[in-house]
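Margin note: ligand = pyridoxal-5'-phosphate.
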Amino acid sequence: MSALAGIQPKTIDGDRGAMDPKQVASAIRPEDIHFPETGLISLENTHNKAGGTVVPLENMKAIKKVANQYKIPVHLDGARIFNAAVAMNEPVHKIAEQVDTVQFCLSKGLGAPVGSILAGPKEFIERARKWRKRLGGGLRQAGMIAAPGIIALNEMPNRLQEDHNHAKRLAEGLGNIDGIEIESEVETNMVLVSVENLGLTSEQFIEKLEKAGIKSGSYGTHSVRLVTNYDVSKEDIETVISKVNQLFK
Ligand SMILES: Cc1ncc(COP(=O)(O)O)c(C=O)c1O
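Resulting structure:
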């Protein structure tokens, strides 16, 4: 952030990814020549590090109210906004309309091989296009890679509930294995587990799974993230549960 945009973040602890609007208000810097100005409030939904959690609309609304008082725009990192919409059982625009600008990924849950979209007011997008070019992100003849993005947008949101069901089943199965703790209630397509009670670091656990053909990622010394997606079937979930059972029984 500082290298590319000359800005510095001020982070706030969240509750399952949701920031307290009062804390947001007190993090806004007052007018003072000694301080940098607060130029943006940035939210994330679903929240990745909290475990794919859904930030409630009410929380987003309350933060937008604070932002309006101080005339600060709100951006949403909505890399997984469609997962949030499905989990909330709301149309995706209900989430997007709480903020000024939103980014979302066509890859990840929506399954396109590549691509993200930035949405916002016309003038903002014009500036963003210039910045994209300036940072080397411009593409020519991008239609080829945009085509799967259209499928991602039109067809994939309708099947995300399947991923969420798979993640719930995975958490249930892994949670029954001695030594594996589910860290965060599953709301979307992510399962965060602690492997501390197995006496393993996350890297050691991941290596054992990798050898059994299961991909996972480290989320801390003893935390591991498993994610479901279009390429993971109901049968795959059962295979993962039974393989992990065999590894640690
Ligand atoms: C929450 C979140 N936001 C943003 C991104 C990045 O998106 P992009 O690569 O399109 O900038 C990711 C992952 O890549 C992510 O998990």
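Residues 2-158 form a domain with the Aspartate Aminotransferase; domain 2 fold (CATH 3.40.640.10).
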